[in-house]
Amino acid sequence: MRYKEIVCATLLSTSVFADDALEIKTNEIPVTGNPLSLSDDEMVRPVHIMNGIDLQNKKSSSLGSMLDGVPGLSNSSWGDSIGRPVIRGMDRNRVQILNNGMQIKDVSNLSGDHAISLDSLSSEQIEVVRGPETIIYGGGAVGGVVNIIDYRIHPEFIDGIVGKYDASTGGANNATAGSVLVDIGANNLMLHIDLYNRDSKNTKIPGFSVSKKLADSDSEFTRSKYGKDTLQNSYNETEGGGIGATYFFPNGYTGFSYASHEQEYGNILENDAFVDLESDNYKYVFEMRDLSNLVNKFKFKVSHTDYEHFEMEGPTEIGLDYFDKGTDAKFEIVHSLLSESGGVLGLDFGTSRFSQKTKPYEPNNKRQNIGFYAIEKIALGNHNFTVGLRHDYHDYEANAFTSDDGAPTEGGAEGSTSFTATDKNFNVTSFSVGSSSKLSDKWTLAFNVAHTERAPNHDELFVYGEHHATETIEHGDRTLSDERSNSAEVTLSWADKGNTFSISPYFMDFSSYIALLDTGVVQFHEHGGEEEALPVLLHQNIPADFYGFEFQGNVNLSNNYGFNYWGDYVRAKNKDGGDLPRIPPLTLGSGLTYQFNALEASVDVEHNFSQSDTAPGELKTDDYTNLSLTMNYDLPYVAGLTAFIKGDNLLDEERRDHTSFLKDKVLLGERSFMIGITGSF
Fold first, then answer.
1. 612: domain CATH number?
2. Contact 643/677 with Cβ under 8 angstroms?
3. What residues contact 102, with CB distance under 8 A and at least 6 apart?
4. 292-313 residue pLDDT tens
5. For the whole prediction, is pTM greater than 0.85?
6. The domain containing residue 265 runs over which residues?
């Protein structure tokens, strides 16, 4: 189904008036990723919340690029259109991507070229959660949690008709995008519909896509190989939408939603190759509140996803395919059994089936998990304590598997490696303790310690083969043990008359970190009639340390002007020797904001330092500075209608994300501007 025509028609026919939601203060917003529904200033470790104008200003083609610049977060990009968030140097299976508190079922965590199966155009709030509260999501959230909120199932009744819309055009990839959201409430029933569409062309870049360092180190790569001034085959077409119905009754509600997401985007490394994916998601929610003096809330949620992913090597030739069908369910009881501050008891379970039909990259497998968790919050005067505990059981059943991309035979030719059917199971336990203390009216000190265990993901165990999209050979290890870490973090924060500052140093000690490392082995592989020399990467258990810090603050210069600043640094070391790959460099940023009547504007400058702490086989990444601009103007005569302009990379610098698998082959976009409108009714 195509949604573009429907979106455009709806935008043209919609009347608008004021949206008061944009005036809500961040620290008054409940964090939905926290089952106790605490606001961010009540949590032991405050979260980053993006909504309203802030969300509108940051909306882009990928979730990773939207969150890039938040202290501690960076982008594992695959061009301007594809990107997954990296938190404190950790990505993939250590960062949970959630939609309304439920896991997103796709294959975006398996490879850097795989898009997340949703678009920010459908979101109304994005939360980044770290600290003891992430314990409810298990070891897969050791880096943190990114929760994308939509209100297809609305938790609160709204009487009447309300909605939002936006439309934009421009950017380095010459994108056109639009979305519309409508909620209708009457007689205890709410209906929801949203539609979105995004269409972008090949990205304009300020130079050669291939870095000089790569061209100098490998004669196979000429600087013009993947494009100059224009990044070849980097287009992106996305469309989707959702419907929902919610019925409200005394002390609760129940609701159902359906969402569809379709996306096609080019393979930058090959002109006639592209990725085509489709995801269908169904959710059901039941919640009852104020059940008794001791039981405050009971909530049940279930989510089912049917996901298909094709990597095409031409109009009809399938190179790789992925099919993943999964169902997750969660039970939660919010109570005050131990203290008036409250706690939560939860049980979740899930099952997934992963399969491939052509050119298997890993065996077909079935995954099942069941987990129990508990969080208790205790308030003692000016001190808040949070204790969390979780235990998980994971079971993997993998079919027999034969790969045509095994270890090379004598002379460098391709070999073949077979595996018997494998059944693996893991029991993992995690716990955390956090405290937050008011030192004075202005100063707050928070401390958190945690022990985290994570079962290996199916790709880390079973993958074995060539992945042309990333130009690597990737091997799993069926003997992997679970990942274990101990961590500590301190946050010191200050607030006075709207001025704020916070700094968070942290340390994570992994006794068994599952790393994807370059083995130094090169395997020869035939593709498209040509022989390629591809590096072999191996998932393996190693001891590792992560340490670093984040800081941010703002200063009210006057009634109209404000100044903000931020920065982050992380160092990740293999304790057996050397640094870990794809770790972001030191980043420092600052911005100036101006607001007067209907005009709001900001200029931000962020400097990404060079990254020379590299792993074997990894090249250094040069520094760059990104200067950006946003302006929002509330148009007269039409209430609630805002025009905006966004400028990116105004210095027209060459920018490469060190966290990307393809950072030496893919250059980010040139100087660009985007214009658009957003409104509400």
1. 2.40.170.20
2. yes
3. 283, 301, 303, 328, 330
4. 888 989 999 999 999 999 998 8
5. yes
6. 4-680
